[in-house]
Amino acid sequence: GAGVSQSPSNKVTEKGKDVELRCDPISGHTALYWYRQSLGQGLEFLIYFQGNSAPDKSGLPSDRFSAERTGGSVSTLTIQRTQQEDSAVYLCASSLNYGGRNTGELFFGEGSRLTVL
Amino acid sequence: AQRVTQPEKLLSVFKGAPVELKCNYSYSGSPELFWYVQYSRQRLQLLLRHISRESIKGFTADLNKGETSFHLKKPFAQEEDSAMYYCALSVRRNTDKLIFGTGTRLQVFP
User: Do A108 and B86 touch (CB under 8 A)?
Assistant: First the structure.
């Protein structure tokens, strides 16, 4: 597809279960970002990938959160032992890179809405 | 510390009225600032960036380094401008990420 694709679009899970959220970026975009969008909190940065490596994972809230990217393309955000406060919309975005710097224009997916009961 | 502040959660105006959405930032480096917009049931998308110095959909934003502000303005609001607006700061030092504010919801009434 032409845009950033995320799955699942909606996920309801029970407290304590693990969840995996997937992001398929725009082809050719080397930078990939995960953000969390909560009511009243705006967009909270989680992690940033350049290729397969993550130069900045400073936004991951706890060690229950992890992410990986393979083949310079698809990324998976994993939340272990989910808690109710993890309920939010998880947004993925990708960006082009020119001369080692990202353009600053992020292309966002539609998000994965996670509800932890 | 890097921070973006949008003091207004909600801004309501009537069609044809001027609009100013406020954004202030805190950053010790050379700032690159952006406005993103999310219309109802659509994806978050770039509206404009300060280095372009362009007007998009009638909106403009000027970077004021003295006041560390990047307010978004439009002289005559339209109903279709109703959306969520996020100000964002590009942080390049040891990383390459955008930091977003908490957003301002603009409601334009007919």
Answer: no
